[in-house]
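quick one
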Amino acid sequence: MARIVMKFGGTSVADLDRIHNVARHVKREVDAGHEVAVVVSAMSGKTNELVAWVQNMPKVAGGNAPFYDAREYDAIVASGEQVTSGLLAIALQSMGINARSWQGWQIPIRTDNAHGAARILDIEGADIIRRMGEGQVAVVAGFQGLGPDNRLATLGRGGSDTSAVAIAAAVKADRCDIYTDVDGVYTTDPRIEPKARRLKKIAFEEMLEMASLGAKVLQVRSVELAMVHKVRTFVRSSFEDPDAPGMGDLLNPPGTLICDEEEIVEQEVVTGIAYAKDEAQISLRRLADRPGVSAAIFGPLAEAHINVDMIVQNISEDGSKTDMTFTVPSGDVDKALRVLGDNKEKIGYDVIQSEAGLVKVSVIGIGMRSHAGVAASAFRALADKGINIKAITTSEIKISILIDGPYAELAVRTLHSAYGLDKS
Ligand code: ASP
Ligand code: MG
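structure w/ magnesium ion:
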């Protein structure tokens, strides 16, 4: 017997037939004798509709924007998950399963006060554990909790993944199964490289890099939480027949396990290739090479909430002037240029140059820690295809390369094959 938290995303509960199908997945695990808790998202499109209602409320001249009151935003957008939890509970009951819906405030899932993007602080797991022991299936509304002001708080878009992992940690589940519309995590985006392979396992740290680089299978925060609490998290499809052979296999079900690196025996050097579009590069030329320049540049950018990513500083030739290049999201270039222009005196640069429409391609793998020459193979492979590299950054488990936008797909495919990731 195992204790399993099962999470179903929006497309998995998009209509009543799919909710019925989800109930069959749950029934399979209950019938196998496992203790089960379920976390659900809103039906697909529902949260977008609710957010649009909030945003489209007519604005009175001179009044506040309707979106101003984040507490009411939360009260409205959290309703999508409430509906699904009730619907799934009755679908399960109709199959003879003892199921009950739970809203975030009923458990309670306690969050901080950051309405609209709240963080989970604490979950009281004892009651759910007791109920699971009695054979009851708790169907928990994802994406929501209870703030310190005793009001509903939501966890940011995609937050029901985080709800599921947090509940799995709180009830000490053996596994958190994230059911979605893809059947696992791939070595790269299969829409770009049809030879991408589904991974059997991926380490938390690698998944964190993949997720933050736009492999949008899971909310990044959920991966962080899984890593901290060592929640074995399994990404799998809800669209497969719930009773197909192997679906209930406890050790080897179809999908991708995100787990501690110690659990990965056959570690490849490179696990995957990720990419992030819409990057822009900004260069400050002939800066004074003195203590405090970096602070003078990046301080004001941080205050303007501009997310700076790659940073490259040249060693100056004569010890007096240097160049600094860094990247920001394309959408923030104008704002960044304005901030840097306003601070020109304080920073003390000569000219500023920028270029948008770039792409960052990254090679990810914890195996890099113990292998030399991993980066060199990427550079060679890209050079052979005539792809020019604009900037490079590396970490222990990642090499990121900035290139011109139109080369993105070629670069992803080239690196995928250079590291032997293509399926045969
Ligand atoms: N329904 C919420 C959203 O669309 C939360 C989630 O699905 O994870 O963002
Ligand atoms: Mg999601």
